[in-house]
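Query structure, 298 tokens:
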């Protein structure tokens, strides 16, 4: 399956369906799309512990949004499933949500690149797992929301509400130190980008630099990847690295790594916003003029 936000003169809609697994859901959704003049471009579904998730992308020469919204709402009620639709209108700036925790190096690079015109997007909202970076958002005149995760399910529901309110096209995890559940991730296939401080698949988890230092790694790096329900296993967009010298300490490795994280995440976001990424069977194809390169998930 190829997932790409490629530019098109048609209106593309992305439908996500989540709920208790039951028969007939796929048939009912696809029939609704066909009956309303849509052409299904991509479809993916999964079931984990009785929870059904489906993502469907369809194109319309002329999308009647009101009829689609009303029809899908009625279908959701009848199927007792949660159904949401996201419109990718042609020639509209993408709306980006940035999720953060305490560390500021990645979000500062994105804001700097946006101010310089290196990326074209609407940085619509910044969501923090705590209020530490509110000042950065205020300085950039971007709405900031602090969402507590004392209750994981409630926290994710709050974030999902914000994502829907701001009609978000891309979610960027700029050193966001919380794990997103499948219930969240399924709604945004190949639309959540994360930066991990190691050359995945080596050293997954939160303490990658500590692991690299303790194991005496000679090359340390970072990985920008799409987020899937499998932690740190999503399709790899780009990776960068640096050599570790004998004089390096854990602190100097972290400093070098953070600088590289900011640049690598920014490059991944830039590639996405330029419509240069495709995902095919766990591999990311990066289009570069007449040449293409491929990276894989672990």
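Result returned for the query:
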């Amino acid at each position: 399956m190829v997932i790409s936000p490629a530019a098109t003169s048609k209106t593309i809609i992305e439908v996500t369906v989540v709920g208790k697994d039951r028969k007939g859901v796929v048939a009912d959704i696809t029939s609704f799309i066909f009956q309303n003049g849509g052409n299904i471009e991509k479809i993916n579904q999964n079931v984990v512990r009785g929870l059904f998730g489906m993502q469907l992308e369809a194109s319309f020469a002329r999308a009647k949004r009101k009829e689609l919204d009303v029809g899908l709402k009625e279908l959701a009620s009848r199927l007792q499933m949660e159904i949401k639709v996201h419109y990718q209108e042609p020639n509209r700036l993408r709306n980006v949500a940035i999720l953060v925790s305490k560390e500021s190096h990645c979000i500062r690079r994105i804001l700097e690149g946006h101010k310089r015109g290196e990326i074209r997007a609407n940085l619509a909202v910044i969501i923090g797992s705590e209020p530490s970076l509110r000042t950065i958002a205020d300085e950039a005149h971007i709405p900031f929301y602090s969402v507590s995760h004392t209750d994981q399910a409630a926290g994710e529901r709050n974030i999902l509400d914000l994502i829907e309110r701001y009609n978000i096209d891309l979610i960027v995890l700029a050193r966001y130190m919380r794990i997103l559940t499948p219930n969240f991730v399924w709604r945004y296939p190949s639309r959540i980008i994360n930066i991990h401080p190691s050359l995945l698949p080596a050293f997954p988890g939160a303490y990658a630099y500590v692991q690299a230092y303790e194991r005496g790694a000679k090359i340390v790096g970072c990985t920008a990847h799409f987020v899937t329900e499998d932690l740190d296993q999503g399709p790899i967009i780009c990776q960068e690295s640096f050599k570790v010298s004998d004089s390096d300490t854990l602190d100097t490795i972290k400093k070098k790594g953070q600088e590289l994280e900011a640049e690598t995440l920014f490059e991944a976001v830039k590639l996405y916003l330029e419509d240069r990424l495709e995902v095919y069977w766990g591999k990311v194809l990066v289009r570069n003029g007449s040449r293409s390169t491929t990276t894989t998930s672990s």
